[in-house]
Backbone:
């Protein structure tokens, strides 16, 4: 048996606990990255988009087609916008909230299988855009081109 003083054994115990904590915290994160899990979708693949309600514009499903009120977008532009919403992935959640964000616009997203709408808000803080999930109070930093695809300037 190893002969250590009480202080030596205390140090061994402290280092052991630190190593175990690092393993329990770091190992799941490492395994998640190693598996290359796909990023979560903005809209789940199992749900169908029914409507997008911007502050002054509504886009709704009308049978197999879509309509915009007021009619600012063509059928092709509506199709492209809705494809972006249905295929968009959420960027990694930001551990920090933006500093002095300015609300640009918001949207209510109606989906099948959900009794209430999802609320998303687009903020700008400096040169960055931020997407806020109102229901869960989570912030995601969006690249400017991604923000333009989901929130076209015409609908803001």
Residues:
């Amino acid at each position: 048996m190893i002969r250590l003083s009480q202080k030596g054994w205390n140090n061994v115990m402290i280092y052991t606990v630190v190593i175990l904590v690092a393993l329990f915290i770091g190992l799941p994160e490492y395994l998640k990255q190693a598996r290359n899990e796909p990023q979560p979708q903005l809209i789940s693949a199992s749900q169908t988009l029914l409507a997008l309600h911007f502050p002054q514009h509504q886009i709704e499903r009308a049978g197999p087609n879509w309509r915009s009120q007021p009619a600012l977008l063509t059928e092709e532009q509506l199709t492209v916008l809705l494809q972006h919403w249905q295929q968009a992935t959420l960027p990694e959640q930001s551990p920090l909230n933006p500093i002095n964000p300015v609300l640009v616009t918001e949207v209510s997203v109606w989906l099948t299988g959900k009794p209430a709408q999802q609320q998303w808000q687009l903020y700008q803080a400096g040169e960055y855009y931020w997407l806020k999930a109102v229901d869960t109070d989570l912030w995601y930093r969006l690249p400017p081109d991604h923000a333009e695809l989901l929130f076209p300037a015409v609908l803001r």
